[in-house]
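Reminder: ligand-aware prediction takes two inputs, not one.
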Amino acid sequence: MPQPKTLDLDLLEWAANDPQKTATAQALIAICQGAIEIARLISMGRLAGNLGAARGGNTQGDVQKELDVRSNDILIEALRGTPVAALASEELEKPLIFDDRLPVVVALDPLDGSSNIDTNVSIGTIFSILPVLQGQPIQAAFLQPGSAQCAAGYVIYGPHTAIAFTTGNGTQIYTLDREKGSFIKSHPPVSIPASANEYAINASNYRHWSDSIRSYIDDCIGGKDGRRGQDANMRWIGSLVADCHRILVRGGVFLYPRDQRKTYENGRLRLTYEANPIAFLIEQSGGKATDGFRRIMDIEPETIHQRTPLIFGSASEVDRICAFKLDPSPESDISPLFANRGLLRS
Ligand code: AHG
Ligand code: MN
Ligand code: MN
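Here is what comes back for the chain with AHG:
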């Protein structure tokens, strides 16, 4: 019987003797080692302490939970001593520089879905690996558009733990064999169905959305009796990784648009360590990822923690949403003067 394919061996084979690919592979292997430790903690639940307890706030005003902090610490230690020059994290105001002569950097959401920690619902780790730019300060590496990513993906901690990642040649899923302590290839390369009737959005924000987003969701709710002429189903897990994993497995769309709440003028999700890695996975699976106006991976980040509206999933459904004329400027969504602008359809 052929031996199951482990991620470590497959990555080293892929890297061959290319220095940049070897650095990328070693960073990915280190992230997996950290993720195995995080998965072990999560699987213990309360027996590992109160992982959902508030531990204060990060520099962007989010409440940090015990598991946010511990996951961040675990991944820092896992990546120290690898060919990673520096690490940016949701939980760190500034990048942590290990050695700026090394070839790659990693941007991390160490623990995604922290509102679900206490509830035994899937959560994850999201990562983006980027090349260091020769002759530029190390911080510049984090401000490259998503199209520069060498590799990206997430680990999902659910009923089983799995990693979805891409190095730019399709999206692969490997599942953790807890007894062996290694990730084993478990799925064929991901291919998202081009059309789908399942959408994910936090509908409690309906009154804060622009009219264009409301129109799209109204059509979904109207189903076969409305303009859409087809019923749609809704799922919202509240962990980006879990909503993305469902879309990789069976299609659908995810929306976290900008809205009128204070500090949500660019949505909620972060460009460099949430939207970009998800966009890379989605595009490599045949889907699309946009802020409603621009391809996510074309956006030039200005700061490491900047937010972006994020819409991704099945290609034809993302196109349908964009046809609702989402407005590119946050101000026009907020101003009542332009309240009806988004109703125009192409
Ligand atoms: P994080 O836990 O890293 O802060 O990310 C939470 C994100 C994402 O996982 C999820 O899609 C979204 O926030 C949920 O936001 P709402 O609570 O506004 O629905
Ligand atoms: Mn997150
Ligand atoms: Mn997080």
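Residues 330-346 have pLDDT under 50 and may be disordered. The pocket of manganese (II) ion (ligand 2) is lined by residues 109, 112, 240, 274 (CB under 6 Å). We will return to this case in the review session.
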